[in-house]
Amino acid sequence: MTPCLQLHDLSVQIRGQTLLAGVDLAIGRGELFGLIGPNGAGKSTLVKALMQLLPASGEVLLEGASLAAMNARERARRLAYLSQDDRLQWPIRVRDLVALGRHPYRGSWWRGGQAPGASAADHAAIEQALHATDVWALRERRSDTLSGGERARARLARVLAVEAEVLLADEPVAALDPMHQLRVMELLRARCRSGQTVVVVLHDLTLASRFCDRLLLLDQGRPVASGAVDSVLSSDNLRSVYGVRALIGEQIEGGETRRYIVPWAVAHDA
Ligand SMILES: Nc1ncnc2c1ncn2[C@@H]1O[C@H](COP(=O)(O)OP(=O)(O)OP(=O)(O)O)[C@@H](O)[C@H]1O
């Protein structure tokens, strides 16, 4: 079966500096794929290159078709992207922000799903995304009045409302409290079960271990380890790449093994 996403020798160079080097990857439909690595490792660069937002060499295929050759509107319908940058360009109402997720389906600018011609599918997608991210009660608020975590959830709602085949989320849980972190990860898992493919950038290693099917560990723009979560999140990798000594624990609950990874101390010998 053709993988949903294929990256062949994806590399990014800016002003002679290599930000990403030789990433080869095949991600299956319905997979929850995690990108991890320390600050500056190249995770956002990889996601942006995948989204064709940076000049890159190599190739990205979606269901076997070149993304570079795809027109922008089709790309915007098929891949939804949550950037790490949470600056708001203007004080838009939450429900209007989320409605922007339906823009790739429209020919021209429209507001909040209220414009004539907004379809039942648009309304349903917007409403579902507002509920799924727990911002329904905030939908009439100006997004510049939200807390950091509330704003992060509203931004995620916009991306969910696209209902794209592929969702690329750059640190979607970084600003969230523990309950909302779990809710968002469970939501991403549920989206994968219903056939969406998700690529997620994470710093929380326990969430990466618990929710992702596979991981790619990047360091200084290069892939260091890729594959099953347990092999990627080894003590050696945590020490050599992150420079931390981690406690890796297991607890049996309901007959299942729960694994957790707690960065405990700076590994001064790394
Ligand atoms: N436009 C640019 N020009 C020069 N250097 C850049 C540019 N964009 C990113 N970089 C550098 O490339 C490296 C990778 O950046 P990137 O944003 O991909 O890291 P990251 O893994 O997402 O990190 P973080 O965990 O901090 O978000 C960093 O050293 C960054 O400073």
From TrEMBL:
<keyword id="KW-1278">Translocase</keyword>
<keyword id="KW-0813">Transport</keyword>
<dbReference type="InterPro" id="IPR027417">
    <property type="entry name" value="P-loop_NTPase"/>
</dbReference>
<feature type="domain" description="ABC transporter">
    <location>
        <begin position="5"/>
        <end position="245"/>
    </location>
</feature>
<keyword id="KW-0547">Nucleotide-binding</keyword>
<dbReference type="InterPro" id="IPR003439">
    <property type="entry name" value="ABC_transporter-like_ATP-bd"/>
</dbReference>
<comment type="similarity">
    <text>Belongs to the ABC transporter superfamily.</text>
</comment>
<protein>
    <submittedName>
        <fullName>ABC transporter</fullName>
    </submittedName>
</protein>
<dbReference type="InterPro" id="IPR017871">
    <property type="entry name" value="ABC_transporter-like_CS"/>
</dbReference>
<dbReference type="GO" id="GO:0016887">
    <property type="term" value="F:ATP hydrolysis activity"/>
</dbReference>
<dbReference type="InterPro" id="IPR003593">
    <property type="entry name" value="AAA+_ATPase"/>
</dbReference>
<keyword id="KW-0067">ATP-binding</keyword>
<dbReference type="GO" id="GO:0005524">
    <property type="term" value="F:ATP binding"/>
</dbReference>
<comment type="function">
    <text>Part of the ABC transporter complex HmuTUV involved in hemin import. Responsible for energy coupling to the transport system.</text>
</comment>
<dbReference type="Pfam" id="PF00005">
    <property type="entry name" value="ABC_tran"/>
</dbReference>
